[in-house]
Design brief:
Elements: E1 11-18, H1 22-29, E2 50-51, H2 59-62, H3 64-73, H4 78-83, H5 85-98, H6 100-106, H7 121-127, E3 134-141, H8 146-152, E4 165-166
Parallel strand pairs: 2-4
Antiparallel strand pairs: 1-3
Length: about 170
């Protein structure tokens, strides 16, 4: 056995089910991937965080970085940020009530949904246009630089009966 054989590159294989459309064919012809914004998902709660509105009063203590960032964007001095603390809290509450706060958080995100299995009948039915589409196999090298691995290695979907609550 070679000394380095235990550290040989590992390739993860994942599968993308697609309908037979011009856009989907670009994955093959141009090597592109489509990342979908959670706002465009068919499940309105998928990837949408929920917040405990009662904890918003403590946002300045819990997440001072958010207040600092908002103040910086508004070009406020540290003293002005402190003076406008109540305004920030009310603004966040209004954004939570209207849904604008959460939409703003996820609007810049993109999700690439992949499967571990190339022969799943349900995936073929739903995502590959009732078996009229195709599936593409993707090989993901685990020998890539660590900062890329964190962004590319697929994470399993964990379904729960309750939404996670954040502050």
């Amino acid at each position: 056995m070679e000394p380095d054989s235990a550290y040989k590159e590992l390739t993860l294989y994942r599968y993308k089910y697609l309908p037979f459309t011009e856009g989907s064919l670009k994955m093959i012809t141009e090597g592109t991937l489509k990342f979908t914004c959670p706002l465009d998902f068919n499940d309105p709660f998928d990837c949408m965080p929920s917040y405990d509105r009662s904890e918003i009063e403590n946002i300045c203590k819990i997440r001072p970085d958010l207040i600092k960032l908002a103040g910086k964007q508004l070009k406020l001095s540290p003293a002005k940020r402190l003076q406008r603390k109540g305004w920030f809290i009310q603004n966040i509450k209004r954004g939570l009530d209207s849904g604008e706060f959460v939409r703003g958080l996820v609007s810049g995100l993109g999700v690439l949904s992949l499967s571990r299995v190339a022969t799943n009948i349900l995936m073929w039915s739903h995502y590959a246009s009732d078996h009229r589409g195709f599936v593409v196999e993707l090989g993901i090298s685990t020998d890539a630089p660590p900062h890329l691995i964190e962004r590319v290695i697929p994470q399993p979907v964990k379904y729960t009966t309750e939404r996670s609550i954040y502050i």
